[in-house]
């Protein structure tokens, strides 16, 4: 009866505009996996009728805010959930227009897979490339390119193959390990959940089967042991008088009891005495486990410190080369102080230099333009007030990422990926 | 090499633990909002794990409408005692007595809306800078837009169109004096996840979640548990039925469902087959299409 032991969690992001069938596809996945409930369907039927629509507008399922529903647009990332007996899925549904690049980046930051939709009639367009670039920039390990509306091109194999070739040509410029292609019709249901009778020439998986089976256990870094100390557990109880638990989420690699560890920034070395979870001890811990680690020796360790291995340490530096995506209406100001938040660490920093600005539509680098405004992507040089312990984002999405926070407004103004 | 992966409930639990520790690290006076309902019980259970062997480093707070299922209150008191935690009770009745809010009248009278004022007053009185809530994104469409760390201005208001972007697991809890945060560690859980987790962890929950005989009133296609707090309309009658609660909230607006499920296994099976969301039985959401968004903007849970 209980199958949860075998169920994994897959997070994926979808990006698209109003008319590429994204909402229809999400609706189809939710509906065919029986994840839409009668009262939800009734509520959106009522809203669709009120808006004067003939058909049920499945977009209303995800567009939850009053203004989004009134204007028929997606403003913000919306999260949707569905599951099959094999996996639980979290969809980060984001608007696809260039002015929402920041929302796409947000949705992409935690995704295992990017679902990119192409209209079979139009093929690969500017927006497709933008989505693929962002998926690559955020190092989403898998891309599923769905060629949608195959019913409108008579389920033509050549059309599909031409689009696949076009996309592959572009993808050579990107850094994506795993790209899959699926010809679908979200409207008619071809190759979404059920195999298409109309496309016998296609031998690959249906989209849902792909989502259920794509290998994601390797998406975390299991090589470079990293534990950013998040919180120090110090029980005020007599029986735990000397207990110091260094709590945090394993950000990379594997820690085993008895392992030599080095504490940064102090450089002290010790051994893992135990890895504790409630009522139990673990022989080893790996990402994304949230654990509490006791060490053999008593050092002064606090939030923001990092445990690593003496023979495999992160870089420690005040100078950081990174690609940032700007999120705020107030443009980037050089030499202005921002907070930089990286793992559980925080420092102040300044952006010293804009090396180039990236045109997210053409992938052209502009070295002349240092004006970085909302939704812009740029390569920058940052100087922090103290050393941070990091890996390249390509190697580790947790120890390679950071956000910038405005000192005055406290808003999160940028997301950064360390080069 | 062995295959390092964990199942989905474990992953959701790890995420929630991370969020709870982040709250302990980033805020000075957090509270964990506790109603005695299943989501807050799960949240407290995960909190226990997050800080073991230490006790949870923040008090629990119950916003008490006074219209509770007695079973939920008994459970609350026992649970808090076992946990060894401090409990703050913020009372809607006191807010009414002090004239901070006015009681609604009529058949649909509910103290649900009044809770917002009581909650915000308590946040101000106890100088609370973060309130952990059991809200989940799958519950309701406005909640689907909610952040893990959700900023509230000095009036306790939520500005859904101007939320801070939230990337990776980097949570920005910076705020100005007088502002606070609502934090939702169970954001990514669904109703099914919560029940499966309760089953997996063998967590004790109030008896009213299981099938029992109860007096009910049929109103607008919903079954309301009958109590002294319900104002009957002329033609309404009281029936006795075998029911259970899918959610536990204020008695005046929480529906019950007809059910014979008397074990956690039966409940999980029932939910798997259910075609109506759990909030389909909440009169507070039915007041308008955007009832939740409107309430949340003003400072509701």
Description:
The complex is a heterodimer of chains A (419) and B (301). By secondary structure, chain A is α+β, with helices and mostly antiparallel strands. Chain A folds into 3 domains: 216 residues, Rossmann fold; 82 residues, Translation factors (Elongation Factor Tu (Ef-tu), domain 3, Beta Barrel); 104 residues, Translation factors (Elongation Factor Tu (Ef-tu), domain 3). Chain A is built from 7 helices and 23 strands. In chain A, strands 7, 8, 9, 11, 12, 13, 15 and 16 form an 8-stranded antiparallel sheet that branches. In chain A, strands 2-3-1-4-5-6 form a 6-stranded mixed sheet, with helices on both faces. In chain A, strands 17-21-19-18-22-23 form a 6-stranded antiparallel β-barrel. In chain A, strand 11 and strand 12 form a beta hairpin. The two termini of chain A are 47 Å apart. By secondary structure, chain B is α/β, with parallel strands linked by helices. Chain B has 2 domains: 195 residues, Rossmann fold; 82 residues, no CATH class. Chain B has a 6-stranded mixed sheet with strand order 3-2-1-4-6-5. Chain B has a 4-stranded antiparallel β-barrel with strand order 7-8-10-9. The longest helix of chain B has 19 residues. The relative contact order of chain B is 0.16. At the A-B interface, helix 2, strand 2, strand 3, helix 4 and strand 9 of A face helix 1, helix 2, helix 6 and helix 7 of B.
The secondary-structure class of chain A comes to alpha+beta
- Tell me which CATH architecture of the largest domain in chain B applies here: 3-Layer(aba) Sandwich
Oligomer state equals: heterodimer
State the share of residues found in helices of chain A, binned by percent.
Answer: 10-25%
Tell me which CATH architecture of the largest domain in chain A applies here.
Answer: 3-Layer(aba) Sandwich
CATH H-level superfamily of the largest domain in chain A: P-loop containing nucleotide triphosphate hydrolases
Helix content of chain B: 25-40%
Instruction: Please give the alpha-carbon distance between the first and last residues of chain A.
Output: 47 Å
Question: Which H/E pattern describes the elements of chain A?
Answer: EHHHEEHEHEHEHEEEEEEEEEEEEEEEEE
SSE arrangement of chain B, N to C: HEHEHEHHEEEHEEEEHH
The domain tally of chain A reads 3
- Helix and strand content put the structural class of chain B at alpha/beta
């Amino acid at each position: 009866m209980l199958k949860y032991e075998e169920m994994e969690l897959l997070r994926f992001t979808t990006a698209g505009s109003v008319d590429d069938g994204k909402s229809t596809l999400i609706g189809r996945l939710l509906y065919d996996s029986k994840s839409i409930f009668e009262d939800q369907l009734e509520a959106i039927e009522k809203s669709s009728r009120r808006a004067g629509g003939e058909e049920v507008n499945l977009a209303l399922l995800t567009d939850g805010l009053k203004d989004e529903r009134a204007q028929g647009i997606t403003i913000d990332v919306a999260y949707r959930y569905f599951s099959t007996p094999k996996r639980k899925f979290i969809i980060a549904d984001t608007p696809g227009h260039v002015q929402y690049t920041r929302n796409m980046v947000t949705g992409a930051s935690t995704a295992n897979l990017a679902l990119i939709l192409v209209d079979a009639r139009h093929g690969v367009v500017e927006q497709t490339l933008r989505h693929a670039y962002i998926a690559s920039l955020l190092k989403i390990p898998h891309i599923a390119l769905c060629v949608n509306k195959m019913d409108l091109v008579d389920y033509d194999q050549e059309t599909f193959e031409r689009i696949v070739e076009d996309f592959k040509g572009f993808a050579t410029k990107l850094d994506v390990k795993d790209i899959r292609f699926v010809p679908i019709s979200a409207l008619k249901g071809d190759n979404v959940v059920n195999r298409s009778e109309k496309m016998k020439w296609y031998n690959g998986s249906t989209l849902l089967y792909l989502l259920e089976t794509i290998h994601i256990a390797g998406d975390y870094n299991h090589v470079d042991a990293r534990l950013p100390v998040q919180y120090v557990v110090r029980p005020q109880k007599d029986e735990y008088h000397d207990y110091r638990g260094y709590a945090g989420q394993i950000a990379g690699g594997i820690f085993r009891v008895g392992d030599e560890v080095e504490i940064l920034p102090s450089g002290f070395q010790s051994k893992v005495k135990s890895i504790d979870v409630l009522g139990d001890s673990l022989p080893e811990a790996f990402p994304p486990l949230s654990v509490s680690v006791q060490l053999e020796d008593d050092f002064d360790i606090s939030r923001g410190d990092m445990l690593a291995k003496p023979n495999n340490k992160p870089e420690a530096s005040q100078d950081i080369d990174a690609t940032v995506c700007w999120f705020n209406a107030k443009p980037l100001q050089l030499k202005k102080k921002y907070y930089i938040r990286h793992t559980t660490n925080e420092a102040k920093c300044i952006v010293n230099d804009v090396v180039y600005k990236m045109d997210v539509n053409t992938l052209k680098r502009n070295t002349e333009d240092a004006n970085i405004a909302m939704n812009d992507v740029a390569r920058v040089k940052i100087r922090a007030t103290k050393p941070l312990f990091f890996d390249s984002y390509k190697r580790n999405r947790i120890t390679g990422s950071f956000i910038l926070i405005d000192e005055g407004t406290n808003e999160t103004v940028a997301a950064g990926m360390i080069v | 090499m062995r295959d390092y992966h964990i199942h989905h409930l474990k992953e959701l639990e790890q995420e929630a633990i991370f969020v709870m520790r982040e709250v302990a690290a980033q805020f000075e006076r957090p509270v964990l909002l506790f109603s005695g309902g299943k989501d807050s019980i799960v949240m407290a259970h995960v909190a226990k794990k997050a800080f073991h062997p230490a006790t949870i480093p923040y008090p629990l707070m119950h916003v008490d409408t006074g219209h509770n299922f007695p079973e939920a209150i008994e459970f609350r008191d026992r649970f808090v005692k076992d946990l060894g935690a401090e409990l703050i009770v913020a009372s809607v009745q006191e807010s009414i007595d002090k004239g901070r809010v006015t009681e609604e009248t009529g058949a649909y009278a509910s103290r649900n809306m009044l809770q917002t004022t009581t909650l915000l007053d308590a946040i101000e009185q106890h100088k609370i800078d973060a309130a952990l809530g059991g809200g989940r994104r799958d519950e309701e469409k406005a909640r689907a837009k909610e952040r893990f760390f959700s900023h509230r201005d000095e009036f306790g208001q939520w500005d859904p169109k101007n939320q801070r972007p939230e990337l990776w697991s980097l949570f920005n809890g910076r705020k100005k004096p007088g502002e606070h945060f609502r934090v939702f560690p169970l954001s990514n859980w669904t109703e099914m996840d919560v029940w499966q987790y309760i089953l997996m962890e063998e967590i004790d929950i109030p008896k009213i979640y299981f099938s029992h005989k109860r007096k009910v009133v049929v109103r607008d296609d919903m079954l309301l548990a009958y109590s002294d707090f319900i104002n009957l309309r002329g033609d309404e009658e009281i029936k006795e039925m075998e029911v259970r609660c899918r959610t536990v909230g204020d008695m005046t607006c929480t529906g019950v469902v007809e059910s014979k499920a008397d074990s956690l296994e039966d409940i999980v099976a029932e939910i798997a087959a259910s075609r109506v969301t759990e909030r389909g039985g909440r009169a507070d959401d039915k007041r308008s299409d955007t009832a939740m968004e409107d309430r949340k903007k003003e400072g509701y849970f």
